[in-house]
């Protein structure tokens, strides 16, 4: 019986070739887009789920309030917090402290720079699932100056044959200028879906036993450490979180330590990648809003494709009415007819699935290049979707597709009464027409909303790229600090001498030294106040040490006072006493004008400072964040970077000359650099990617909707062939005919625009709220989207309408 259904379905596919192609094309593009998006979503939803204890691990976060205002929303906490929580709460069964480190790894003559690592407690190896290839995880990081290398770093430093790393364990190596480290283990490289990525981990006790970090063992005064805790299975972490207010009061009082009210929270590890809007983030993050937006777009695309099938199948119902009548007279039951039409739906969906798999194989590589990941259908099937098996989901999708796209047409077609059909009285009520109209409205409401969204994303990203930052980042080369050089009393003189030498190079315009560069998180101080002023409030400010060239290198506007000069710098940082404020600090402290602040004294970091200058505000971070108070001080450090302003000519020769000078002053250090504008713009990488993906898949949604509209216009034109002939005989022009055939569809598109506009405004306004500096959604965006939708619809409909309008009316009147 099924074989007969299949043969009949295949014959009907061939009989109605154009409609079959439109249906298959729409469904295949929809399935392709859906599966590509699900690959992207699967990757981001899978972060950290490879950890055996993923559902039991939480990181401790910290909010600080000063004068009733949130001043820090971060992931850094106090070194004693994890141990205290494990001691106080039976729900906490393990904890680990994590301190980021970026170092140069040295073995013999081989030096590898910019290696990301962490200082961790040995419990890290039992809490997280980073398996050791060699070594014993029970005690690998219990002693100071012990280190575990990730597989790739170990291969790059040592000549490892095959996978035998046992010869590496027990050897020693250098990290920066630290005392030698003993290698106690080799671990697998962290997977791509780990928010903690590292090339090495070393024992946390090294910080206080070797380097004398007095606050890094058990302390509640210095909050520069990251904590993860493991809870008993089944623990309600929200109930534990509610106890943290009393816990913090037992161990310390935030208003006495940092001058602010502090609140602690627990964030599930599996949320760390997607739901991190924290400062001082040490993991790999992206926006959950972006990921779930992609899920919604995938659902809308496949739904639009299904609607196409329903519309075209029900539109064809009249044409197939006689077929149904004959089958019923021949003895076919309603159930058999439904099975027949569902078989057709199955066949179309299976062909569309095969076509989609072929399309995916063709576009997978450019898609991976776009999202900068190595994804595939195999990856999707293996990793699943947030714990669900994707193969099962795909089968469910196909079954659902068959019933969603095939059941209603099958029900409609099988319901024709044979007597009326065979007499030619098979025109039903307007219910079917109204349904098709409603579905077209839904399709184009979706496409209009996506067009509006694409325009808003484009305008916001263009706004960001054109917005003045208050600093000039162009042609600034950042040379990373000489980490292998020890600090001594001669360092400032050497650094000044190097800067002067670099300035002598042709095409080097200026050189500055700074403890932080634009785009990098700066340190905070919480005790800013006026000395001998009426304002006794304490405030929080960012701070950075800079050389006197920093302000001119970045074209920062000096509003009042003077810049630093050589007399402001001292090898003993405790003797420095001058600072420069930005406008934000000036307003915070209550000075009415920049000039009024000059000569005043402020209290910061436990001592007093003289204000010598006020500069204009500039954006240290992306435009997602508001401008912050900033104080500059006259400090040098071996951890300070060089900002070199270069001309655009002869870049290669200039770079070679800069490297030669750097190597002469800091021999043995790695010459590592990057261009600042590229690095700064990486802050918007996720937003730019979101804009591209949003635009591409919105375009696909429009394409699928147009395929459906093309099919409906084609069918409508065929149904009205005689009417067109009569109207032409009576004198109707081609434009009259095109307008006649198009106006009903255009009305539907306009109605869709009215529905889509408020929905799109609400969604995109919420997205824009993530930016401190954003565009306003102008009315012209909606007008442009509406006009574009109408133009697209007209172009789609007119293709067939014009063709019908220019046909000789004699042929139209002869047709049956």
UniProtKB/TrEMBL annotation:
<feature type="domain" description="MacB-like periplasmic core">
    <location>
        <begin position="20"/>
        <end position="246"/>
    </location>
</feature>
<feature type="domain" description="ABC3 transporter permease C-terminal">
    <location>
        <begin position="696"/>
        <end position="808"/>
    </location>
</feature>
<feature type="domain" description="ABC3 transporter permease C-terminal">
    <location>
        <begin position="296"/>
        <end position="414"/>
    </location>
</feature>
<dbReference type="Pfam" id="PF12704">
    <property type="entry name" value="MacB_PCD"/>
</dbReference>
<dbReference type="InterPro" id="IPR025857">
    <property type="entry name" value="MacB_PCD"/>
</dbReference>
<feature type="domain" description="MacB-like periplasmic core">
    <location>
        <begin position="448"/>
        <end position="660"/>
    </location>
</feature>
<feature type="transmembrane region" description="Helical">
    <location>
        <begin position="745"/>
        <end position="763"/>
    </location>
</feature>
<feature type="transmembrane region" description="Helical">
    <location>
        <begin position="21"/>
        <end position="41"/>
    </location>
</feature>
<keyword id="KW-1133">Transmembrane helix</keyword>
<feature type="transmembrane region" description="Helical">
    <location>
        <begin position="346"/>
        <end position="367"/>
    </location>
</feature>
<dbReference type="InterPro" id="IPR050250">
    <property type="entry name" value="Macrolide_Exporter_MacB"/>
</dbReference>
<feature type="transmembrane region" description="Helical">
    <location>
        <begin position="387"/>
        <end position="416"/>
    </location>
</feature>
<feature type="transmembrane region" description="Helical">
    <location>
        <begin position="775"/>
        <end position="797"/>
    </location>
</feature>
<feature type="transmembrane region" description="Helical">
    <location>
        <begin position="693"/>
        <end position="718"/>
    </location>
</feature>
<dbReference type="Pfam" id="PF02687">
    <property type="entry name" value="FtsX"/>
</dbReference>
<comment type="similarity">
    <text>Belongs to the ABC-4 integral membrane protein family.</text>
</comment>
<keyword id="KW-0812">Transmembrane</keyword>
<feature type="transmembrane region" description="Helical">
    <location>
        <begin position="437"/>
        <end position="458"/>
    </location>
</feature>
<keyword id="KW-1003">Cell membrane</keyword>
<keyword id="KW-0472">Membrane</keyword>
<dbReference type="InterPro" id="IPR003838">
    <property type="entry name" value="ABC3_permease_C"/>
</dbReference>
<feature type="transmembrane region" description="Helical">
    <location>
        <begin position="290"/>
        <end position="312"/>
    </location>
</feature>
<protein>
    <recommendedName>
        <fullName>FtsX-like permease family protein</fullName>
    </recommendedName>
</protein>
């Amino acid at each position: 019986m099924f074989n007969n259904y299949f043969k009949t379905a295949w014959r009907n596919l061939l009989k109605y070739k154009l409609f079959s192609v439109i249906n298959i094309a729409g469904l295949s593009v929809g399935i392709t887009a859906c599966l590509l998006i699900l690959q992207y979503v699967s990757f981001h939803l899978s972060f950290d789920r490879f950890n055996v204890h993923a559902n039991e691990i939480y990181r401790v976060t910290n909010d600080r309030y000063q004068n009733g205002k949130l001043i820090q929303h971060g992931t850094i906490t106090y070194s004693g917090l994890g141990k205290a929580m494990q001691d106080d709460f039976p729900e906490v069964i393990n904890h680990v402290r994590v301190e980021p480190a970026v170092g140069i790894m040295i073995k013999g003559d081989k030096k590898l720079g910019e290696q990301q690592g962490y200082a961790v407690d040995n419990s890290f190896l039992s809490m997280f699932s980073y398996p050791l290839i060699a070594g014993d995880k029970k005690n690998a990081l219990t002693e100071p100056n012990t280190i575990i290398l990730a597989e790739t770093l170990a291969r790059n430093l040592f000549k490892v044959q095959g996978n035998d790393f046992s010869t590496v364990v027990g050897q020693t190596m250098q990290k920066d200028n630290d005392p030698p480290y003993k290698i106690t283990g080799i671990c697998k490289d962290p997977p791509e879906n780990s928010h903690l990525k590292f090339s090495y981990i070393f024992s946390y006790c090294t910080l206080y036993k070797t380097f004398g970090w007095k606050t890094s063992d058990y302390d509640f005064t210095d909050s520069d450490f990251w904590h993860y805790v493991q809870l008993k299975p089944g623990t309600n972490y929200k109930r534990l979180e509610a106890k943290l207010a009393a816990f913090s009061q037992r161990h310390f009082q935030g208003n006495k330590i940092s001058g602010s009210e502090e609140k602690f929270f627990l964030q599930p590890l599996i949320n760390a990648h997607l739901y991190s809007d924290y400062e001082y983030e040490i993991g790999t993050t992206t926006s959950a809003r972006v990921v779930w937006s992609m899920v919604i777009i995938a659902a809308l695309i496949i739904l639009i494709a299904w609607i196409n099938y329903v519309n075209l199948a029900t539109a064809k119902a009249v044409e197939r009415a006689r077929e149904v009548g004959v089958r019923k007279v021949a003895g076919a039951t309603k159930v058999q007819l439904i099975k027949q039409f569902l078989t057709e739906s199955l066949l179309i969906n299976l062909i569309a699935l095969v076509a989609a798999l072929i399309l995916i194989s063709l576009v997978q590589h450019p898609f991976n290049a776009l999202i900068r990941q190595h994804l595939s259908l195999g990856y999707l099937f293996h990793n699943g979707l947030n714990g669900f098996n994707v193969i099962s989901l795909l089968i469910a999708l196909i079954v659902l597709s068959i019933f969603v796209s095939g059941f209603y047409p099958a029900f409609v077609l099988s319901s024709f009464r044979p007597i009326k059909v065979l007499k030619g009285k098979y025109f039903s009520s307007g219910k079917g027409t109204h349904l098709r109209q409603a579905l077209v409205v839904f399709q184009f409401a979706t496409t209009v909303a996506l067009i509006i969204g694409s325009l808003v994303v484009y305008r916001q990203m263009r706004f960001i790229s054109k917005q003045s930052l208050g600093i000039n980042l162009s042609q600034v080369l950042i040379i990373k600090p000489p980490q292998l050089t020890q600090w001594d009393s001669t360092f400032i003189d050497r650094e000044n001498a190097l800067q002067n030498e670099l300035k002598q190079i042709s095409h080097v315009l200026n050189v500055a030294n700074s403890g932080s560069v634009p785009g990098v998180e700066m340190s905070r101080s919480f005790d800013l106040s006026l000395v001998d002023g009426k304002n006794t409030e304490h405030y929080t400010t960012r701070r950075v040490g800079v050389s006197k060239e920093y302000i001119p290198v970045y074209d920062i506007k000096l509003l009042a006072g003077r810049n630093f000069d050589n007399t402001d710098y001292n090898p003993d940082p405790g003797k420095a006493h001058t600072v420069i404020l930005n406008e934000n600090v000036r307003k915070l402290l209550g000075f009415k004008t920049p000039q009024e602040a000059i000569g005043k004294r402020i209290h910061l970091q436990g001592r007093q400072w003289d204000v010598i200058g006020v500069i204009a505000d500039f954006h240290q971070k992306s435009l997602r964040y508001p401008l912050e108070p900033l104080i500059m001080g006259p400090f040098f450090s071996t951890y300070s970077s060089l900002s070199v302003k270069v001309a655009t000519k002869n870049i290669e020769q200039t770079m070679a000359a800069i490297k030669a000078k750097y190597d002469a002053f800091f021999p043995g250090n790695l010459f590592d650099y990057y261009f600042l504008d590229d690095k700064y713009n990486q802050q918007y990488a996720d937003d730019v990617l979101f804009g591209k993906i949003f635009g591409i898949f919105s375009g696909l949604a429009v394409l699928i909707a147009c395929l459906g509209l093309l099919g409906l216009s084609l069918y409508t034109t065929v149904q009205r062939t005689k009417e067109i002939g009569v109207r032409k005989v009576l004198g109707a022009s081609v434009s009259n005919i095109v307008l006649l055939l198009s106006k009903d569809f255009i009305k539907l598109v306009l109605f869709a625009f009215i529905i889509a506009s408020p929905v799109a405004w609400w969604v995109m306004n919420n997205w824009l709220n993530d930016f401190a500096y954003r565009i306003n959604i102008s009315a012209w965006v909606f007008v442009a989207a509406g006009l574009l939708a109408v133009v697209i619809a007209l172009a789609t409909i007119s293709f067939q309408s014009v063709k019908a309008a220019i046909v000789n009316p004699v042929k139209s009147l002869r047709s049956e």
